[in-house]
Structures are given as C-alpha cells and as structure tokens.
Amino acid sequence: MRIQSGGAPLRIAAPKQRTLLAMLLTHAGHAVPVSSLVSEVWDQRPPASAVANLRTYLMRLRHLLSSTGRPDSERLVTSDGGYLLKIEPAEFDLFQFETLSARARRSKERGDLETAHGEYARALALWRGTAVEDVPLGPALRGVSAHLTALYLNTVEDFTEVEFALGRHAAAAERLRALAVRHPLREGLRARIMVALYRCGDVAGALDAFRAARQVLADELGVEPGAELRRLHQAILRREPEVELPGRPVAVRVRNGHPRPRQLPREPAVFVGRSAELSRALDVLCPGAGAGSRSRVLALHGPAGAGKSALALRAAYLAADHYADGGLYADMQGCAPGLPPLRPVEVLGRFLRALGVPHEDVPGTQAEAAAAYQSLLADRRVLVLLDNAADAAQVAQLLPAGDGCAALVTSRPLLPTLDAAQISVGLLDPADSVRLLAMLAGEARVAAEPGAAAGIAGLCGHQPLALRVAGARLAGRPDWSLGRFGERLRDRSRRLDELQTAGLSVRAGFEASLATLEGGASPAKELALRAFRLLGTIDLPEIAPAGGPDVAPDFRPDIGPERGPETAPERGPETAPDRGLEISVERAAELLGVEVKVADAALDELMKVRLLEPIGADRFRVHELPRLFAAELAARCRPDVRAL
Q1: Nearest CA to 68 among 6, 155, 161?
Q2: Rounded-to-integer distance, Cα 617 and Cα 575, Å
Q3: pLDDT (tens digit, 9 = 90+) per residue, 518-565?
Q4: What are the contacts of 373-381 at 24+ separation with CB within 8 A?
Q5: Is the pTM of this model over 0.85?
C-alpha cells in the first residue's frame, strides 16, 4: 500500500493505521461502519478501549491525508453510517486498473487485438507484488485480498489469450512461468504455460509443465489435475496440430448482431441431492413449463452455507439452452463481510456494457439505466442470475420484464415482496450429506468408515458448506482417518475452527448474517443481538434431528444409506448426531426480561437473517453450528452481557 502526494510518499508506519486506511480505501466513496473497522483492525478481538483508540487513529489519518491535494474539503469524513474516504478515480490505481481492464476487454471483443494488448499491459503494470501484502489483514481484508488476487489472475489470463492471438507465445510463456511460482495451484496458469510452450515447439517443456502441476497439486491438496488440464495433456501427447486452451466461457460473443454475454461462474463440479428443488426451478425457468408456472423469476432463500448459489448455478446451466442470447451474473454482496451491498445503478451499468452499450453511453441515473436495460432485453432471451441479494429493493429493477428472459435471485432472507416463485433451501438430508462427503474426501475412505462418516455429517449439521470444508480438509490430509477428524469436530470449543480452510469458513457466514444486526439501528435489532448470544449459553433441553437421537445411517457409496440387521450402524460417540435447540417466544421473553411482544420482535430479526428457523406457532430452532457461534460471541462479551 503506497500513498503519494505531489510525487512524494506519505509514510504510515503504524500497522493498525495501515489496516484502517486499507479498509477505507477498499470501500472508497462508501461509509464503513465503526463496528466493521473495529473488527478489522483488531481481527475480531477488540480491547475495551477499541473505539477510543480507533478515533485516535482516524484523527491522525485525517491530519495526514489533509495534505494530499483536496484543499476544498476533507478526505476523511464522518457520516451517519461510519467513516468515508473521498477518492477521485484518477487518484486510485485500483480504479485505473478496472477502467483499463474494461477497455481492454471491449477492444478484444471488437477484434482490435493490438489496442487490447496495450491496455492490458498498462493495467497489469500497475501491479507490484501481491494485493495489500504489507498490511495486517482482518477478516474483511483477507476476503478483499483474495478477490483482488483473483481479479488480477483473471486479467492475466485474458491478456495471455490476446498474446496468443497475436502469436506472442514465447513472451507469454516467460511471464506465466514466473507467475506460476507465486500462484502454484492456479490450473489456468499451468494450462496457458503448456499451450505457450507447445506452440513454441517445446513439447518437452509443455509436458514438464504438466508434471510440475500434477506434483504441486498432489503435494498441496492431495488431488489430481482437473479434467480440462488432463485433456490438454493428452492432446499434447498425441501431437495434435491445433492445441487450444481448456474451455472457458467467453465474456461476450455476438448473436444476430447483438453481444451475447456469458457471465455465469463455473458450474459446481460437486453437487448432490436437491432433486425436488431443481425440478421446481426448471418448471419456472424453462419455457413450455406446465400450468401455474407463468412467472419467470425464481427466488431461492435459506441460511448461510445452505448451498443456494450452487443450486442456482446448477439450475441456470440446466436451463441455459433456452436462453440463446446469453447470461448475466452479479454478486450483489448482500451478505459479504466488510463489503457494502452493490447499488442497483452499479449493476445496471455493468449489464448494459455487457449487452453492448459503450461505456460513455451508459445513463448516469438509475431510472434511465433501468429503462435502457429493459429495452435491450425486450426482444432477447437472456438468463439473469443475481446472487446474494440483500433485499427485494436491491434487485427489483434488475429483473427482466421481457417474456423471453428469466431471472434467478438468491438471498438469505425470504423476499416476500418479490414477484417470484419462492423456494426455500435448507440443509441436506443425512444420506446426501454422507454422499457429498464421499465425493470430496473419497468414496473408499467413507466406505471403510461409514459410521465415522455419518458422525462427521451430523457434526457438520448437514450444512453443505460445512461438509465441503470437512471434505476439503480430509482430502488434504489423506493420513487422517475419518474417526480422528470426527474426534476433532466433537470438541465444541474448536469445531468452528476445524470447519475452515483456505477460502471457506462456516464462521464467516454467520458473521455476515450477524453484521446486518449490528450498529444499533433499532431496539429490536439490539435485543436480537443479546438474544442470539443468550442462545449460545442457556441450558435448555436439546432436541435431536429427525430420525432419532442416536441413529446414524450406515453408508455404502453404491446404494446410499441402508438400515437392517446386516448393516446396523456403529454405536458410540463417533456416530453421535448433531443437536439443535428449541425455544418459545414466551421462554425467550422470560430469559431476556422483556414483554412477549418485544421478544417476538427480536426473534423475528434473527429469523430474517436466518440465524433462527421457525418450527411452529411461536417456536423457533437454532441449529448447532450457529449456536456454537453464539457461544463464542457470548464468551467474548463483557461480563455484564454474559450475565443475561
């Protein structure tokens, strides 16, 4: 992180101030709540004096930044929502990078490869080292760093395709080899190295690049290269005259004179169950659906980690053939830790550019942009996926009105005001949970320890995200038995620590849900925070999941769960199921010391962010994993908060 004024560097040596400034820069132009800044600077372990210290750091930053060329106004300002850093686009290299990259993509799409090459080169020249490498990172900045790294690598891969089209394979190979040292697990880089070397006539070098990729993936992750990389390897072994890059969706193609965006992320490679939900989704999305399926808007809602995005992508790919003019995608950041939800006008601008509107012709107001968007979609067949929506208002103007288009929306809260077919996405059933674990950790391992596998599935609460983390950890540790990993998960004080790995964290999903309640926006939300912490500490009778308190199905990968005298599941602690907790509104009111209607409003807030699930009239259930998170929060609170 470098700050310059008039060509001279500004030195900010204090690590916490650097973290604070990085957080403000990544949200440039948007207010960052005090609670988010405190959580980031002290990495979720703030001292009692955190807010006072934060004000001191901000005062010093305000004084330092006052010398950076804005005499007419302060750069760092206080707003109702927190603190906001004012930055002009020309002053911030990230804005410049995004602008140059977008211009390069448009030039590439027009076939102007020389211009695209120059713009990509200027964009990539802005990068020095890795993203925010000299800044202590909290939870939000770790996510920002990962996002920026992915953005950089995607741009490098786009640039390489332009170089290939211009015949500059040797230069591409040299740069990619150096980059692969820093990002050894990126298969896209490895594929491009192989193609570049092969087209330079270096067959042996291309095969060596594949062997190096296989070795590092085995050493680091315990997995083989992906199918696309293996197919490329086989093509090189066969000495095929034309070796192409593995299939990758092109940003924009042209159909009937119109740009054809292909923005959907990669389809999930591992997916189990959800047959009923998929059937309902395709009834909505596919033209020719039966009576009662007139709406072409589908809304998926459910708690953190339930797999809404994976289900939406699977449905989108299954329905893609019905939408010949392509697909649009946006992560609305409705539950992204430390990131503000995207404004509809930002997404409209992105979509209009993808649909062929030149950057300078995109309307500046939301109403005009929405009108232009609907006009462009009126005679096209486009599928729009809006992931992680915060509320109905955020996506209302992004839903296509044309009969030939359709939209998929995912969100944690139910969006009842959205004119859409609603599908609730819950937890997996025990059989599908074990099947998902087997696909990730290895069917042979699950077949060898079926009781332990079922126990792990139960301790993961049958939550898809938790199961994916567990499967990834087991895949990375082939020396572990399933029983050993189950023992680690049974320790309630460390289970959430065990259920996190690179890029995936069960705890982070709960943190994002809780963040929407923080800040004291209303008495009901303040009480909801207290009530949630309470759920992690109170001693009420627990309830077992459906199927009984002590039965975990035996699992055979070929036929799934089975019960009977010959396949009776192992008993004992390793198959002990996960448990949840039920509470009534009346009991919550008694424990919180408030009236029933006040407690009901607080529990309703928790239900909206899916930390609590309704199970009947005036009764709610908190599942075990969010309950463990609630217990962590309670343990970190002041004594007067713990003594609810």
Answers
A1: 6
A2: 32
A3: 755 678 888 888 888 888 887 644 333 333 333 333 333 333 333 333
A4: 373/348, 373/397, 373/398, 374/400, 374/401, 374/402, 376/352, 377/401, 377/402, 377/405, 378/402, 379/404, 380/258, 380/325, 380/404, 380/405, 381/322, 381/323, 381/324, 381/325, 381/405
A5: no
